[in-house]
Amino acid sequence: TEYVVIAGNRFSGSSAPMNIRGCASNLCGGEASSPPLRHVLIEGNTATLMPGTGTGREFVQMEGSDWTVRGNDLRAYPSRNVAQSAPAVGSSGFGAHEVYGNDLGGRAATCGGGGFVRCE
Fold first, then answer.
1. How far apart are CA 51 and CA 119, in angstroms?
2. What does the DSSP 8-state code read for residue 87?
3. For a Cys-Cys bond, which of 26, 42, 64, 69 suits 36, CB 3.0-4.6 Å?
């Protein structure tokens, strides 16, 4: 659950947005078997949706702390919301999330939730 790297993947979908999440369920951190992820790097991935098949949501749902999302190709991803952050169950804190250097084809990146020290 610490020092996780997700890099060099191609995420594609035909009818629904795809999403990288910090845990397997909404009980993130609420069960011993599903602790929140910490020190996560998401880099060099490509995400696409088929034209006209969805509006997309955030590319990454962060639940945990110290996430970095950089250098991803999101030009064909329909949402500008690169990341959404939520504290893990049983935790009051967010933590030091950085989102930068992603290619959104000229669109400005947005981030939702708390704990962002950088979102550009």
1. 26
2. P
3. 64
